[in-house]
């Protein structure tokens, strides 16, 4: 148990659906991340929030829309996705994103496996 | 942009064997190097955070070294057990929020 919970664990959706992924952390961390993990590729950073403010958007298509209402919760809203968006989406948190001040590790959830039909 | 390479991509070892794998990077321009252990259907969990050239960490049968001058880190597992079967990820903290991951080494320990 890492203290980071993701729901749902599995999601199947059509290209015209709207769905959301949810992440919750109980660690008191200030930074939260969405990563995408596709087969045989490294973990790919999508978004970062620090103190509820978005600090990174790694050129992610607008069909992915993040929301961070508070430091404990992070959502990824999905709309008109493509089959190539099928992947494992991992949420992570860390005490702070300030490199040089904090070199601590990321705490990950178990991921949401998304299949787009 | 830092590119993190991990080798081998996968390996199978017999229970009791010792093994090691490599994380390579072209530059020492980062703040820390992390090793994560990722079991199937679970979340990646940090094994080590390494910050200095010549840094060595150890946790039970698993240890890691970091050589920033030569551009690599090794992860060693002594006396592999079936429960060590997992994917081992290497990541560099290259800037604020910027964790750059390798593709991982998938280890299978055969009983």
Produce the secondary structure layout.
The complex is a heterodimer of chains A (117) and B (111).
Chain A: E1 4-7, E2 10-13, E3 18-25, E4 31-37, E5 44-50, E6 53-57, E7 64-70, E8 73-79, E9 87-94, E10 107-108, E11 112-116
Chain B: E1 5-7, E2 10-14, E3 19-24, E4 32-38, E5 45-50, E6 56-59, E7 62-67, E8 72-77, E9 86-95, E10 98-101, E11 105-110
Parallel strand pairs in B: 2-11
Antiparallel strand pairs in B: 1-3, 3-8, 4-5, 4-9, 6-7, 7-8, 9-10, 9-11
- State the total count of DSSP E strands of chain B: 11
Mean pLDDT level of chain A: 90
Q: Which sheet architecture does the biggest sheet of chain B show?
A: 6 strands, mixed
Percent helix of chain B: under 10%
Beta-sheet strand percentage of chain B? over 45%
Largest chain-chain contact?
A-B, 27 and 27 residues
Major sheet summary line of chain A: 7 strands, mixed
From the structure above, extract its key features.
heterodimer, A: 117 residues, mainly beta, seven-stranded mixed β-sheet, four-stranded antiparallel β-sheet, globular, B: 111 residues, six-stranded mixed β-sheet, five-stranded antiparallel β-sheet, 0% helix
